[in-house]
């Protein structure tokens, strides 16, 4: 996000760029006003800002997301450790059942 704003630092009147279309296809486009940009603020809303204000917005957004990631990382690590313990226990139980099942099968035969 922030890297795309750096394009606006160029003082070219018409700037070649790639415009995101449907999050899958990129088509060539031209930016006629490098001082004002539209930014997607979420849920389909766009806001016109100066290039400097857009940089500030994306910096704040990156800082916010980084803090949120730091908050949830310990919980995710704990969940991962619990998942690993459950998987290990299930593997041991399957091995035990397999070992117990083999003598029963030979006793029936």
Automatic annotation (TrEMBL):
A cellular component annotation (GO) from this entry: intermediate filament cytoskeleton
MF term (GO), any: unfolded protein binding
Gene Ontology biological process terms in this record: negative regulation of amyloid fibril formation; negative regulation of canonical Wnt signaling pathway; negative regulation of DNA-templated transcription; protein folding; retina development in camera-type eye; RNA polymerase I assembly; RNA polymerase II core complex assembly; RNA polymerase III assembly
Domain of life: Eukaryota
InterPro entries: PFD_alpha_archaea, Prefoldin, Prefoldin_subunit_alpha
Pfam family, one: Prefoldin
CDD domains found in the cross-reference section: Prefoldin_5 (cd23157)
Family recorded in the similarity comment: Belongs to the prefoldin subunit alpha family.
PANTHER family hit by this protein: PREFOLDIN SUBUNIT 5
UniProt protein name: Prefoldin 5
Lineage, opening ranks: Eukaryota, Metazoa, Chordata, Craniata, Vertebrata
